[in-house]
């Protein structure tokens, strides 16, 4: 989705690439490779934020983090009719550069289910997050995650997206979780490519700091 | 004097040239008795047992041929036809490791195995092995599984790498002795001494593991490991007092551990792998000797994707100390394995 993961896996042997940026210049770049029943992802993003003066600094500092994820799952209806697609995923950091929070790390372990219900695709799950830097750690913390995609019948190439997920926020003396809610539109411009325009709101940032992002996705089959 | 030397040299060269120009002698008529020397007495007649290495088809002597057959030393074709064994390509094999733990399967004879792995913790490891006669294998590897910390409150547990190990495994293939017999291997792995931050450490592991296929698409591995490790250095906090402590000095429960794994193949080219093993951890400044060397449980899960018969891509998650439930320690790893029958084909072609 926009922030939350789904239970969709890339097809075996296919490569999925995503790149995006928002109005602040914070960006994301992700490449996923399908292994049939699993996928491995590699990329970087600025989802995790840190604030050095958290009283006045509403938007915080974007932390560039290298991310790797492994997702293992079953496709929709794989085991019994009506079964949602299920994925067990772990995402962790392998590099964090260019910010004041040295040795920052963040790890997510989640279970998410996705199911097509008519024109809507629903996603729901639970995420255990942990993050830390320089000996300050959050500890494993459980939060829900959810999202939906709605493709109206008159516009088969257009989907309305919405999701919510809790992600770590690094502060001078502690690490907390903040929710991030996003909504937007995906337009399937090409058979192998789509473009998304969305807005993301963060807890404690206020409406004026919400970001508008644009993202493109491409699927390359072997 | 010069003239006589030149004459002698010319004579030698001409003689040699004439001798080289002679056609090879015709082969003698075939001997119904299976060979025999010129006197016809001491040969290996049909009623005599064949000598080791000289009689069976496909196992012709590697050099010299049949001594009873005069051979042309200048001939460009071999004097003895050596029937070639089938040296065509072979298919995939059962691999000697699940993700981090050994299996009860050995590499086939003269098959070379190589694995290179990277992970999000910055670890880079490699493992190279060769199968020996279908009953053993030898390998050299680097591992990043050995970890170190200053004390038990230290949240930052670092890995000592590269940690070079050599391994030797011997065993019996699955179903070799009787039906439903699991593959069994006895393995020994030992590290070279590692000097890191003023501490000398070593590890060794003796494993016995059994592996059994449960139908065509599943397999299970169960084993036990006897571990040993040692650390030498200023482990009491006094920089002038160096001391060595070893794991084998402690109770059996600290060094004898069970491990295992499962493999399931839901798709023809993809396998789900889960394994559970143990890794040594050194705690240099822990006050209690029992805490200075500990074995920590490691849980790994992932997928093996067969790109080709000779190549697999594996990826997954490894939690080095699952007992501490530290999610930040989890690593995403990717590794590629290659198996090669080239050496086996070369060996077969020599037979």
List the main descriptive attributes of the protein structure presented here.
heterodimer; A: 222 residues; mainly beta; Porin; twelve-stranded antiparallel β-barrel; globular; B: 351 residues; 16 strands
Q: How far do the termini of chain A sit from each other? A: 24 Å
The percent of residues in helical segments of chain B reads: 10-25%
Derived structural class of chain B: mainly beta
Major sheet characteristics of chain B = 12 strands, antiparallel, barrel
Short description, anyone?
The complex is a heterodimer of chains A (222) and B (351). Chain A contains no helices and 15 strands. By secondary structure, chain A is mainly β.
Sequence-ordered SSE layout with sheet pairings:
The complex is a heterodimer of chains A (about 220) and B (about 350).
Chain A lengths: L14 E8 L4 E8 L3 E8 L3 E2 L10 E2 L1 E11 L10 E13 L7 E13 L2 E14 L2 E2 L3 E10 L7 E13 L4 E13 L5 E10 L8 E10 L2
Parallel strand pairs in A: 4-12
Antiparallel strand pairs in A: 1-2, 1-15, 2-3, 3-6, 4-5, 6-7, 7-8, 8-9, 9-10, 9-11, 11-12, 12-13, 13-14, 14-15
Chain B lengths: L1 H20 L90 E8 L4 E9 L3 E8 L3 E3 L8 E2 L3 E10 L10 E9 L2 E3 L2 E15 L4 E16 L9 E4 L5 H4 E12 L2 E14 L5 H4 E16 L2 E9 L11 E10 L1 H9 L1
Parallel strand pairs in B: 4-13
Antiparallel strand pairs in B: 1-2, 1-16, 2-3, 3-6, 4-5, 6-7, 7-9, 8-9, 9-10, 10-11, 10-12, 12-13, 13-14, 14-15, 15-16
């Amino acid at each position: 989705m926009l922030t939350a993961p789904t239970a969709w896996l890339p097809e075996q042997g296919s490569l999925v690439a995503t790149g995006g940026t928002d109005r602040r210049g914070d960006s994301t770049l992700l490449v996923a490779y399908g292994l049939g029943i699993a996928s491995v992802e590699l990329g970087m993003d600025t989802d995790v934020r840190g604030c050095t003066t958290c009283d006045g600094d509403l938007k915080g500092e974007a932390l560039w983090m290298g991310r790797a994820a492994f997702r293992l799952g079953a496709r929709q209806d794989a085991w019994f009719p009506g079964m949602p697609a299920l994925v067990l995923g772990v995402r962790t950091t392998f590099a964090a550069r260019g910010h004041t929070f040295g040795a920052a790390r963040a790890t997510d372990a989640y279970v998410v289910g996705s199911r097509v219900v008519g024109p809507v695709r629903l996603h729901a799950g639970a995420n255990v997050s942990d993050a830390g830097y320089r000996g300050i750690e959050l500890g494993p913390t459980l939060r829900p995650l959810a999202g939906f995609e709605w493709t109206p019948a008159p516009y088969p190439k257009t989907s309305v997206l919405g999701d919510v997920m809790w992600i770590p926020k690094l502060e001078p003396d502690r690490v907390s979780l903040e929710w991030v809610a996003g909504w937007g539109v995906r337009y399937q411009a090409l058979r192998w490519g789509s473009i998304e325009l969305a807005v993301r709101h963060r807890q404690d940032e206020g409406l004026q700091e919400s970001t508008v992002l644009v993202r493109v996705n491409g699927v390359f089959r072997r | 004097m010069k003239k006589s030397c030149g004459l002698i040299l010319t004579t030698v060269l001409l003689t040699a040239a004439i001798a080289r120009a002679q056609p090879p002698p015709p082969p003698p008529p075939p001997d119904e008795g299976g060979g025999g020397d010129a006197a016809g007495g001491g040969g290996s007649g049909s009623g005599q047992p064949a000598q080791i290495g000289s009689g069976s088809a496909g196992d012709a002597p590697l050099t010299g041929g049949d001594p009873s057959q005069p051979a042309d030393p200048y001939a460009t074709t071999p004097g003895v036809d050596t029937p070639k064994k089938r040296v065509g390509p072979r298919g995939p094999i059962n691999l000697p490791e699940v993700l981090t733990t050994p299996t009860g399967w050995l590499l086939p004879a003269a098959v070379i195995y190589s694995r290179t792995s990277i992970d999000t913790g910055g670890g880079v490891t490699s493992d190279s092995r060769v199968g020996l006669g279908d009953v053993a294998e030898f390998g050299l590897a680097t591992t990043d599984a050995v970890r170190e910390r200053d004390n038990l409150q230290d949240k930052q547990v670092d890995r000592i790498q590269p940690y070079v190990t050599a391994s030797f495994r011997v065993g019996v293939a699955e179903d070799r002795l009787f039906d439903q017999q699991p593959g069994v291997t006895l393995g020994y792995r030992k590290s070279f001494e590692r000097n890191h931050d003023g501490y000398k450490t070593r590890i060794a592991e003796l494993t016995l593991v059994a592996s059994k296929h449960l139908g065509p698409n599943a397999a299970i591995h169960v084993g036990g490991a006897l571990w040993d490790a040692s650390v030498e250095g200023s482990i009491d906090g006094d920089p002038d007092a160096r001391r060595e402590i070893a794991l084998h000095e402690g109770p059996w429960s600290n060094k004898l551990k069970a491990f295992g794994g499962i493999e399931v193949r839901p798709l023809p080219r993809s396998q789900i792998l889960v394994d559970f093993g143990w890794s040594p951890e050194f705690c240099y400044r822990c006050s209690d000797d029992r805490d200075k060397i500990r074995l920590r449980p490691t849980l790994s899960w992932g997928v093996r994707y067969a790109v080709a018969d000779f190549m697999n891509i594996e990826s997954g998650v490894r939690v080095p100390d699952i007992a501490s439930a530290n999610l930040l320690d989890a690593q995403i790893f990717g590794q590629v394995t290659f198996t090669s029958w080239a050496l086996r084909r070369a060996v077969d072609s020599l037979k």
